[in-house]
Each structure stands twice: as C-alpha cells, then as structure tokens.
Amino acid sequence: MSGETTDTVTVMARTMSALGRLTTRSRMRRELGGQSAKLSPTDMWLVDRVSEFGPARMSELATWQSVDRSTMTTQVGKLEKLGLVQRAPDPQDRRAIVVSVTEAGRQLHEESRAAACAAFDSMLTDWSDAERCQLTESLTHLVDSLEKHLSTKSEDHSTER
Question: Which of 43, 71, 93, 100 is deepest in the core (most CB within 10 A)?
Fold first, then answer.
C-alpha cells in the first residue's frame, strides 16, 4: 500500500468509527428515525425491511439480519405484540412463516422515513445538490460493498461448520 492509500484508509476508518458512534446516540436515532422509545434500531430496520420489500419468510429475515431463527422469532413476536407486523403461514409452503407489515407498521415506517428526510435536509442545509448527490452515490456504493463483503464472509463461515 502506498503512503497516500494508507492515509486514506486511516481517515476512512476514523470516519466510519465516528459515524458509528454518532448514529448510536439516542438523539441522533430519534432525529433520523422518529423512533418510539419502545423500538430498538434493529426493530426499526425490520419494520423498514418488510415495509419496503414486502412479506418475507422468517428464515429470510433471520439470514438478512445475520441472526439465529429463534432470535428472529423473538424480535418478530415483539413487533407483532406492538401491532407493527403480522405472521401467517406461507401459502407456498404451510410449514414456513411469512412476516408482513400491518397498517400501523407501514405508517410508522412512513413517519420514520419522513423524519429522517427532514433531519438530513436540515443537517445538510449548507451542502450543494452536487455534494448531496456525491454523498448519496458514495454511501450507496459503500453499503453495497459492505453487504457483499459480509455476505461472502458469512458464506465462508457456513461452509466451515
């Protein structure tokens, strides 16, 4: 690695650490997600996932979250008690369970998304449209790369068992 590349990677690592720290602050989570005190970020991710992509099998959601099915069952149970999601047998395979969003869950998702958009708009008010577009493209590329990397690592570990 060249000196310039090393410096860039070092700054990137520091920036990612700072971003992780900032996004776990409760004030930031409230501003970006308009979240209820009853919901964790993981709960909101699940409501958002089912709202955006439609019903999904419990096993798919567990894989997506990289958790055990029993953990997903507990998480979905909590959201179901709150009236945000519902479970039903999969019409294709009655042994499997499909999770879908309820109207209350969809409304929470929409309110959360609107709160996040308003917060980002306010935080980045002095950024040009070009800067906002560049950030969006870079973050999208980063998320895609991280998901690909984690997916590959997950597959590597599953073949080791």
Answer: 43
Q: Say how many C-beta atoms besides its own lie within 10 A of residue 101's C-beta.
A: 24
Query: Regarding beta strands 56-57 and 97-101, do their DSSP bridges make them parallel or antiparallel, or are they unpaired?
Result: antiparallel
Residues 93, 50: contact at Cβ < 8 Å? Answer: no
Give the pLDDT confidence of 77-120 residue by residue, as tens digits: 999 999 999 999 999 998 899 999 999 999 999 998 998 899 99
The strand ranges marked E within 1-127 are 56-57, 85-89, 97-101
- Ordered strands of the 85-89 beta sheet: 56-57, 97-101, 85-89
87: left (phi over 0), alpha (psi -120 to 50) or beta: beta
